[in-house]
TrEMBL record, chain A:
SUPFAM superfamilies: CO dehydrogenase molybdoprotein N-domain-like, Molybdenum cofactor-binding domain. This is Xanthine dehydrogenase family protein molybdopterin-binding subunit. Residues 25-140 form the Aldehyde oxidase/xanthine dehydrogenase a/b hammerhead domain. One of its GO terms (molecular function) is iron ion binding. Pfam families: Ald_Xan_dh_C, MoCoBD_1, MoCoBD_2. InterPro entries: Ald_Oxase/Xan_DH_a/b, Ald_Oxase/Xan_DH_a/b_sf, Ald_Oxase/xanthine_DH-like, AldOxase/xan_DH_MoCoBD1, AldOxase/xan_DH_MoCoBD2, AldOxase/xan_DH_Mopterin-bd_sf. It comes from Fibrisoma montanum.
TrEMBL record, chain B:
One of its GO terms (molecular function) is FAD binding. It comes from the Bacteria. It comes from Fibrisoma montanum. This is Xanthine dehydrogenase family protein subunit M. Residues 1-226 form the FAD-binding PCMH-type domain. Keywords: FAD, Flavoprotein. It holds the Pfam family CO_deh_flav_C. InterPro entries: CO_DH_flav_C (IPR005107), CO_DH_flav_C_dom_sf (IPR036683), Diverse_Substr_Oxidored (IPR051312), FAD-bd_PCMH (IPR016166), FAD-bd_PCMH-like_sf (IPR036318), FAD-bd_PCMH_sub1 (IPR016167), FAD-bd_PCMH_sub2 (IPR016169), Mopterin_DH_FAD-bd (IPR002346). SMART domains: CO_deh_flav_C (SM01092).
UniProtKB/TrEMBL annotation, chain C:
It comes from Fibrisoma montanum. It comes from the Bacteria. Keywords: 2Fe-2S, Iron, Iron-sulfur, Metal-binding, Oxidoreductase. GO terms for molecular function: 2 iron, 2 sulfur cluster binding; metal ion binding; oxidoreductase activity, acting on the aldehyde or oxo group of donors. InterPro entries: 2Fe-2S-bd, 2Fe-2S-bd_dom_sf, 2Fe-2S_ferredoxin-like_sf, 2Fe-2S_ferredoxin-type, 2Fe2S_fd_BS, Aldehyde_Oxdr_Iron-Sulfur, Beta-grasp_dom_sf, TAT_signal. The keyword DNA-binding does not apply. Coiled coil: none annotated. This is (2Fe-2S)-binding protein.
Length: 740, 332, 215
């Protein structure tokens, strides 16, 4: 039978999300939504001091409260073998000793979990958790990076870099030297972090959680509990936003696993919103100094970038804060230094554009300041210093369409109409400002595997232990598989979020499409090869002994070129008496990639309106021009840039985790006081996708799009605010109080 | 949340009795603030008295004004033709507050009784004289960006309070000379809106002058000449769904460019909606010009006092007053 | 109907579930007594119930129409509509984002109005009609026009805020606050989307509004 015509679903097409129906009907289940038989509810009691030791913990009242099954504390917690062994710093992603839940009496940060109360209903567990009474021996704590800078140290995994002479900017004819600050940002995904744990046997556990990497979570749990791979199963098919906050195993997973061990029933632990502020990481505060020196005509001579970030007392969290500086502009002399300040806070964690977002705020603000010092157009200054190859290592770019981003972005935005003089443009009563910036972000691909199973009913099921925290991985992988196989998208089902699937990297660092997409592509190529072999080697086949050059794969079938006769995939299975055909393939980049520097690029143009009296800033118009390689799905790719824009507005104008350092506690630990953008903050947005394949990064030509749009964004806003008001804000966020 | 007893009386008398008989009982109407506070352990009533069965939802003309039932929803009031036409300042202020969903739940009485958003009040691990009298004021030497510049108590550490009242609606109501009708154990009484909320004084735990067991029945807004020239200006950290850093309710009655009558109040600056009576007096009889507005704003700022993080309010407030008056004065 | 000074939430119309019957009687008789002599009897009530924890810990019956089906339930007074839906009825389409009325993820319709389930006590839903995302479409086979528009315009990414956005969007149109993009921006600001799909959400609502379909 002839299959119906292929639906829109080839690579690049703006296919609607294949998981859309589940998401708009409430049918998609997230981590806290597995109401398993016998489920119990675990609620965390947390510390009210920042540093010290637990003197006594009284759980009697909680234990006696109605419905309570157990209270787990450091006094009675099941043992965690991995905690005893300590962290293996050769293997760990963060240097230091990971935080150990219910391990001992030590308090490292405020709101730290000290007990898990498990009861038969959520309400009973919540109430009983308030009955746990803890007394402490309190030590003096420090949570303010500004007063602790003398404690800054070079991390064990350094990021320092130099080329040419250090501090050469100081001798340049035109120079600026400025200090910039970025605050703590909290990921605050809409879904609070949650985990449900079930011990199926003494040595076998299942976790339903919120994971950007199920294999990573599986590995961490295996190590902690000394379990075999096949005895740890992590399920996370839907993730309600993560942005980096679900890239490690956190207290909610450990507490659920320990609690489930204790009560012998499934335990569900859901973080309250205030716990999301310090149990699942955050973007660390930074203090940065940037020195730029140039010739009178704007050629950079020297760049110095000194960055300081905060970390906890038990781990050294480092991020790529000086990376954009190393590679974005051609400058013969450059030195970058990165130090950490240990504080009595929980360990930070990667947060969308981790490092690059903060670092580029400093760099791209400084570039604007230099442009004004030079009396030069900020875009012209960037073009003048465009790097034809990566100045960090002199490698050629695998692809670089940053010039196209500048040109097309500027044209669409109308940059030429900008009067560069600050406070020179108005719209009614409002001050109008226009600003721009450039962005650069690593484009990587790591090893990934996929399994493709063609069933006798014609459905192709492709599996990989990837995640889809929102970018559209389900959809894109479906498209890649359908396109590669010549299948209708309705005949493809892509599955992810299960640690029993073939290995995939976690969904962070904008490399899922390049990595998992390559594996899906390659496994489909392998499957086609197998189908072809089955078709041409089988006597009685319509394609018996046909030459490979004469075959085309399209419309769910293999056909002879220019002819309508052929064999559908299901007919090939039938002919060979196969109930299904399964292929698994590992995919990785070849050695040629090492010869290139692989990056995504963007140029951001922003118009702000600033109220001259109230200081309220509105981002009115954004043009983002992005080189992210070949676009896999125009619709979801555009959405990724819209998303970065909203994140960029949050970072630029309103987001800041505020701590009262006397107490070490967050002041604004909810969504009313930690401001993220709302619908009314939405600007008019124009997204330009350059859409040119990068054949070096991945066979599909994709680079990565999840983060690039945010890199430099906050600086573009700050630059626009300067243009509107004449005020240069070097400490984010740009709230109204800073402009009145 | 601690468990509680739930009752739903059907008469005013029974509602009042339920509260007077039980020292921790509290009324619930929309629940938009009470449930939030209960979840966070800030308050823990033993009995929650649901007053939604009481017939207090009407919005009507009454005498020389409009009477709004205490249980009328914020959204219903904001969208009501009478209010939109005759008291547009109230519509503007209501719509500046919270979100559409919350306005569909929140009642007029509940809005008046909402508690401060002070961070220290909300965090039971921190000192707060309002939540726990005598425990100290965390904000005084702490993070006080959102705090008051008028009428604070910053003297006695055991009684200090620099919190602000968070409502937008109440800023309009105080400007509009509303009256609050309440009933209680000793019968009905009327409270001028300006006297409804309190400054912290020595009892920061008390937000209002309601007595134990008193139930708000209605609000009366007298007719006025402020149907045309009004503006509610709200300065906040994002464009919607955020509490005010500073807000201004301005209403002008203009005749050929001269101010016949004026009303001015501020939010986000004091423990109560802050009526600017002296500034109003300075406006009346003067031409509606920026110079006049500036003089009024200067007068309004007398006695203001800032703390470590809220000095910006001293700069922002007079500008906001002038801006609100300018916008209000524009041809309708 | 018999008038009572105090009527317990569920009144007398509905027969409470058998298991809760005894508690129901115990409480309702006490509450009737409360009405007669408030202050003294409340004191007595605490003694009878042995303090507040036990006096209130008993689930009480409530009848709520959820997505067109009348449900006779037994809930503690402190249970929110949101937790009732998610934890007791396994209707997890309504999401918990903040639990404090600050994000809109739990938006449902009660008697046709969009409200927040996290700030609604289940006991206060007696006799009311609750519509959740699972019951928005006219039948399970079809999607509501707003659901279709959200898919078409990519009005979501992670999908977690989506049910709340859709319920709110329908409310926004029904209330008459979707006449322009600017109005939609303002009246949809009670629904946070951390993925930042706002512009696509606005486009979806505008399309449904202009299309004139009954929402």
């Amino acid at each position: 039978m002839e299959e119906s015509a292929v639906k829109t679903g080839q690579i690049g097409d703006p296919l609607n999300r294949v998981d859309g129906r589940l998401k708009v009907t409430g049918g998609a289940r997230y981590a806290a939504e597995y109401n398993l038989p016998g489920i119990t509810f675990g609620v965390l009691t947390t510390s009210t001091i920042t540093k010290g030791r637990i003197r006594a913990i009284d759980t009697k009242a909680a234990e006696k409260a109605p419905g309570v099954l157990a209270v787990v504390t450091h006094k009675n917690s099941p043992k965690v073998p991995g905690y005893e062994a300590g962290t293996d710093n050769a293997q760990s992603r963060v240097h230091g000793q990971e935080f150990r839940v219910f391990y001992d009496d030590r308090i490292y940060y405020n709101n730290q979990p000290v007990a898990l109360v498990i009861a038969d209903t959520l309400e009973r567990a919540t109430y009983a958790a308030s009955l746990v009474s803890v007394t402490y021996n309190e030590d003096k704590h420090q949570t303010n990076i500004k007063t602790q800078t003398e404690k800054a140290f070079k991390p064990e995994r350094p990021e320092d870099y130099a080329r040419g002479e250090a501090d050469a900017y100081k001798t340049a004819p035109v120079r600026i030297e400025r200090e910039y600050h970025t605050p703590i940002h909290v990921h605050n995904p809409m879904e609070p972090h949650a985990a449900t744990a079930v011990w199926e046997a003494d040595d076998k556990v299942i976790i339903y959680n919120k994971a950007q990497g199920v294999k990573l979570a599986q590995k961490d749990i295996m190590k902690s509990f000394d379990l075999k791979e096949e005895n740890v199963r992590v399920h996370s098919p839907f993730v309600g936003g993560a942005f980096g906050s679900s890239s490690r195993i956190w207290p909610q997973e450990m507490a659920a696993i320990l609690g489930a061990k204790k009560v012998g029933r499934p335990v569900k632990v859901v973080l309250k919103r205030d716990q999301v502020f310090n149990m699942v990481g955050y973007r660390p505060r930074s203090i940065q100094k940037v020195g730029l020196g140039a010739t009178a005509d704007g050629k950079l001579i020297g760049v110095t970038h000194e960055a300081m970030g905060l970390t906890s007392t038990y781990e050294q969290f480092t991020e790529r804060i000086v990376h954009p500086t190393k590679s974005l502009y051609r400058s013969p002399n450059l030195n970058a230094v990165y130090k950490l300040v240990p504080l009595d806070l929980s360990t930070p964690c990667w947060t969308r554009g981790p490092g690059e977002s903060s670092g580029s705020f400093a760099l791209e603000s400084a570039m604007d300041e230099l442009a004004y010092a030079l009396n030069m157009d900020p875009l012209a200054l960037r073009l003048k210093n465009f790097a034809d190859k990566d100045p960090e290592n002199d490698k050629p770019w695998s692809s670089n369409y940053l010039r196209a981003c500048y040109e097309r972005g500027a044209e669409r935005f109308g940059w030429s109409k900008r009067n560069p003089k600050p406070r020179s443009m108005r719209s009614g009563d409002m001050l109008v400002g226009m600003g721009m910036s450039a962005g650069i972000y690593k484009a990587e691909r790591t090893t990934a595997s996929a399994r493709a199973k063609l069933r006798s009913d014609g459905l192709l099921v492709v599996q990989s232990a990837a995640a889809d925290v929102g970018p559209g991985t389900y959809t894109i992988m479906t498209q890649i598989a359908a396109d590669t196989m010549g299948l209708d998208v309705s005949k493809v089902r892509f599955e992810l979020g299960d640690s029993s699937f073939p290995q995939a990297p976690p969904q962070y660092g904008s490399h899922t499409t390049a990595s998992v997409g390559s594996a899906v592509h390659d496994v489909c190529v392998a499957l086609k090869q197998r189908l072809q072999e089955l078709a041409v080697n089988k006597q009685g086949s319509a394609l018996y002994q046909a030459s490979a050059d004469d075959l085309v794969f399209a419309d769910n079938a293999i056909r002879l070129k220019g002819r309508s006769n052929g064999l559908s995939y299901t007919e090939i299975l039938k002919l060979n008496n196969l109930p299904e055909l399964e292929v698994t393939k590992e995919s990785k980049s070849g050695p040629e990639k090492e010869k290139f520097s692989t990056k995504s690029f963007c140029a951001t143009f922003i118009e702000v309106h600033v109220h001259p009296v109230t200081g309220m800033v509105q981002v009115r118009r954004v043009v983002s021009a992005v080189d992210a390689g070949r676009i896999m799905n125009l619709k979801t790719a555009r959405s990724q840039i819209l998303s970065s824009t909203i994140w960029g507005i949050g970072m630029a104008l309103m987001e800041e985790g505020v701590i009262d350092h006397r107490f070490g506690r967050y002041m604004n630990k909810d969504l009313a006081e930690y401001h993220v953008p709302v619908c009314a903050d939405t600007p008019d947005m124009d997204v330009i996708l350059i859409d040119k394949p990068d054949p070096i990064v991945s066979p599909t030509g994709a680079k990565g799009i999840g983060e690039i749009g945010m890199v430099g964004f906050a600086a573009a806003v700050a630059n626009a605010v300067f243009h509107a008001t004449g005020k240069r804000i070097r400490e984010l966020p740009i709230t109204p109080d800073k402009l009145v | 949340m601690i468990n509680f007893q739930y009752v739903r009386p059907t008469t005013q008398q029974a509602s009042v009795a339920a509260l007077t008989g039980n020292p921790t009982a509290q009324f619930i109407a929309g629940g938009t603030n009470l449930i939030d506070l209960m979840k966070r352990g800030v308050t823990a009533p033993e009995t929650v008295v649901d007053i939604n069965a009481l017939p207090l939802r009407s919005i009507d003309r009454q005498g020389n004004g409009i009477r709004i039932g205490a249980l009328a929803l914020n959204s219903a009031v904001a969208d009501h033709p009478l209010i939109r036409r005759q008291q547009p300042l109230l519509t503007q202020a209501l719509n500046a507050g919270a979100s559409a969903q919350i306005r569909n739940m929140a009642t007029m009485g509940g809005n008046m009784l909402q508690r401060t958003r002070c961070h220290y009040f909300y965090d039971t691990a921190l000192p707060c004289n309002k939540r726990e009298p005598g425990s100290g004021c965390g904000a005084l030497a702490g993070f006080n960006r959102i705090h008051a510049i008028f009428g604070t108590n910053d003297r006695d550490p055991k009684q200090a309070c620099i919190a602000v009242h968070p409502s937008d609606m109440c800023v309009a109501l105080v400007a509009l000379d509303a009256t609050v009708l309440v009933t209680g154990p000793t019968g009905e009484r009327r409270i001028p809106f300006i006297d409804f909320h309190r400054l912290p004084g020595n009892t920061p735990e008390r937000d209002t002058n309601l007595e134990r067991g008193e139930l708000i029945l209605a609000l009366d807004i007298p007719d006025n000449g402020f149907a045309r020239h009004v503006h509610y200006l709200k300065v906040r950290d994002r464009n919607s769904y955020a509490f005010a850093l500073v807000s201004v309710a301005a209403a002008l009655d203009l005749s050929n460019g001269t101010i016949r009558n004026a009303r001015l109040a501020m939010g986000g600056v004091a423990h109560k909606p802050w009526r600017l009576l002296d500034a109003e007096k300075a406006l009346i009889g003067k031409p509606a010009t920026e110079t006049t507005f500036r003089q009024a704003a200067d007068l309004a700022m007398q006695g203001a006092k800032a703390y470590e993080h809220n000095a910006f309010k001293l700069r922002m407030s007079p500008g906001a007053i002038v801006e609100a008056l300018k916008t209000a004065a524009r041809p309708a | 109907m018999k008038h009572r000074t105090f009527s317990v939430l569920f009144g007398n119309e509905q027969e409470p579930p058998h298991t809760a019957r005894r508690d129901f009687l115990k409480q309702s008789s006490l509450l009737t007594a409360l009405a007669l002599a408030p202050s003294s009897v409340v004191q007595a009530a605490e003694t009878v119930f042995g303090g507040r924890a036990s006096s209130a810990a008993e689930p009480i019956p409530v009848v709520i129409e959820i997505n067109g089906t009348s449900r006779s339930l037994s809930v503690e007074p402190r249970v929110t509509l949101l937790d009732l839906l998610r934890e007791q009825l396994d209707m997890t389409g309504t999401k918990k984002g903040c639990d404090y009325g600050q994000c809109g993820a739990c938006t449902v319709h009660v008697d046709g109005q969009r409200v927040l389930a996290c700030l609604s006590l289940a006991v206060m839903m007696q006799g009311r009609q609750v519509t959740t995302i699972e019951g928005l479409a006219e039948n399970p086979e079809q999607l509501h026009p707003m659901q279709e528009a959200f898919i078409r315009h990519d009005g979501f990414q992670c999908g977690y805020c989506t049910p709340g956005q859709i319920m709110s969007a329908v409310g926004c149109i029904r209330e008459g606050h979707a006449d322009s993009a600017a109005e939609i921006r303002e009246y949809m600001s009670g629904n946070l989307c951390r993925c930042g799909a706002y512009s696509n959400i606005i486009a979806a609502i505008e399309e449904v509004k202009k299309g004139g379909a009954k929402v």
